[in-house]
Amino acid sequence: MTPSFGSKATLALAAALLAAGSLGSCGPPADRGADARWFGSIRPPRANVLRFNNGAEPETMDPSVMSGQPDGIIARILFEGLTGSDPQTLEPVPGQAYRWETSADGLTYTFHLRPGLAWTDGSPVTAHDFVYSWRRVLSPATASRSAALLYAIAHAEEFNKGQLADSTQVGVAAPDDSTLVVRLAEPTPYFLFLTSYYTFLPVPRACIERFGANWTRPEHLVSNGPFRLKSHRQNEKFVFTKSPTYWDAANVRLDGIEALSVDDLNTSTNLYKAGMIDWNPSGNIPSPFLPYVRGYADYVTGEFQATYFYGVNVTRKPFDDPRVRRALNMAIDREAITRDLLHGTRRAWGRITPSGYPGYEGPAQVPFAPESARAELAAAGFPGGKGFPRFTILFNTSEDHRRIAEAIQAMWKRELNVPVELQNQEWAAFMQATTALQYDVARRSWIGDYLDPSSFLGMLVTGGGNNRTGWSDPVYDQLLRDARRELDPERRFALLRRAEERALASSPFLPVYHYSTHELIKPYVKGIFHTALDRHPLTHVWIDREWRQHEPIADRER
After folding, report:
1. Cα–Cα distance measured from residue 172 to residue 183, given in angstroms and rounded to the nearest whole number
2. pTM value?
3. How far is CA 173 from CA 99, 109, 132, 152, 490, in A?
4. What is the total count of domains within the chain?
5. What is d(CA 189, CA 186) in angstroms, rounded to the nearest whole number?
6. pLDDT digits over 240-258, tens only?
7. Residue 220 domain flag
8. Looking at the structure, do residues 473 and 344 belong to the same domain, yes or no?
9. Is residue 46 packed enough to be buried (19+ CB in 10 Å), middle (13-18) or exposed (0-12)?
10. Domain span holding position 162
């Protein structure tokens, strides 16, 4: 039986089991399954189960309201949308819908669901479930932070903002159980990418109406994906088993998945080294250790569509003044953070959008300019930092987040002479605090929902659920609306660039670095690949117990 690791038990058990093979000892542990080319044990698990660390305990398991990466990973294990994602390219592939048609004007999508789809309780999954689920996301009562992702659908924005009372006017309908017709407000080239995103997943109406907020408890939860939830111990782990009701169950090769909730990076990496987990996803390796782990054959890295930044609560004084925010922005030495703290494993970054969008040339990055920063602060009425109130940087529990916060705290003290304190919270409390604007400055990050700069710039629209700064600019909002309607790619990107320039000038977000993925994958785990969004469909992952025989000959002879 695989050991369980709780919030208290994890550290104690890991210390006891890993004393001889911890991060402080660079060689492989004394284990017959170890090999010098690999980081730690390479002995496959006894059961046909993939074990990995999901990081922080998810805030929720309800796809309609979630907005965090740990939450989204769990949702994609349990549920499936109209489309899925190719595990290597993330291109849309058939999911619950086996085919679809698009009208000549690009405004109407007709999805045809597979015959015989079923929830885990045996009841049928129909097109009406998608209509209910998407309307639920858009309902003002749901308060979904990701509702804006559905604004591509006709009348979705008006309904979500309370300007339209009749949900049946939203452009989604089910003429029969197996057909879903979606009318868009304007052509949306990435719409099929959206339909695989967790906000677009179907949720079980009967279960929700019966159990209310408790519908995601293991004894109640009904899902439609490749795995079902067997058990969940908060701050410890999720246990999933293969779902016999999934339409493609015959091709799901794992019997189950175990996802640990360990937010201590050293513990996570030690568990991987000891062979207690088979995959240590990106973000779970301590930054100081990355230069060392790079040399192992099971280390995988690459850039992806994500940025790390600080959000500023513009509803609190003195942060309502853009001069103050610009001063904070220009007083961050991003190169020093990425060079000295992150050991060159990420790229210093002074924009909201990441790199890698063909045809999109983003605006100039925010520079490290302490003299200009001091001038902005003086213009705002705080020469030399005099009279500036004490404020707090909020971050979710992580040693890397703490180290970066301490560095920025020191920079702001040195360059601006402003008093800064630090506060950390567990993930769920942190998400609630930032959503409710109960902070001054908060650590944030964003991974693209789809491969387009609007995935990042859409965060800052007025009242957006993922804005979480209180910032509002009607001109910015209009630029994004105009970009949604613009069919010419060059003109569309020009509108998005102007919008990003305005956001950088106002500085509700303070960019810090461009993410890279750094993960460890055991050689016997097959089907997990580096992707542009650090998203990893697990439906067809498998444990290859004969992996040595399948290695290239050159590798086997090393």
Report:
1. 6
2. 0.81
3. 17, 11, 10, 15, 33
4. 3
5. 10
6. 999 999 999 999 999 999 9
7. no
8. yes
9. exposed
10. 79-211
